[in-house]
Design goal:
Layout (H helix, E strand, L loop, with lengths): L1 H16 L8 E5 L1 H18 L4 E2 L1 H4 L6 H11 L2 E6 L7 H12 L3 E7 L16 H15 L4 E3 L6 H30 L6
Parallel strand pairs: 1-2, 1-3, 3-4, 4-5
Helix pairs in contact: 2-7, 5-6
InterPro entries: TIR_dom (IPR000157), Toll_tir_struct_dom_sf (IPR035897)
Organism: Salix purpurea (Purple osier willow)
GO biological process, one term: signal transduction
Length: about 190
Amino acid sequence: MHRTSQFLRHYHRTRVANRAAKPCDVFINHRGIDTKRTVATLLYDHFYRLNLHPFLDSKNMKPGDKLFDNINGAIRKCKVGVAVFSPRYCESYFCLHELALMMESRKKVIPIFCDIKPSQLRAVDNGECAMEDIRRFNWALEEAKYTVGLTFDSLKGNWSDVVTSTSDNVIKTLIEMEGGKQMQRHKSTPILDV
């Protein structure tokens, strides 16, 4: 816990110093009809209170914003993604597009399987998407299926527990990423013999 609070204090100071460029740290990918009023908003609010600059479409976009420009930009600039899979997730072109873009961008994605099993995830060809999109979406879903994630049953589980577990995993990932950056800086610093 001490390491986490140290990281958050350092991270917040760094973010305040770099406020000019404000990419999101955590992109929350979700099916609005299933999870916007529950886990997606709870995650957003929790990350926001931790000063982790989350991106949630309904919170970060305003009338007149271009959907794809803003969402694609946020995904490309984010550090980590949280994909909240739900029963109707695979019916949404936007959800699948966002997931595919996160996977193609090689973002670390933390899946939450909310009222759905990983084996149930598949993009269905309903005739509205190009076959190339269907293949792309199924590839991204396969990647997510084989990524260790969190499972949540909304009838039996506690929302607070899934939010806490998710944020713990996101913070751990950000700590690892910061450590990797510091290692890269040390490797690139030339050592002078005196």
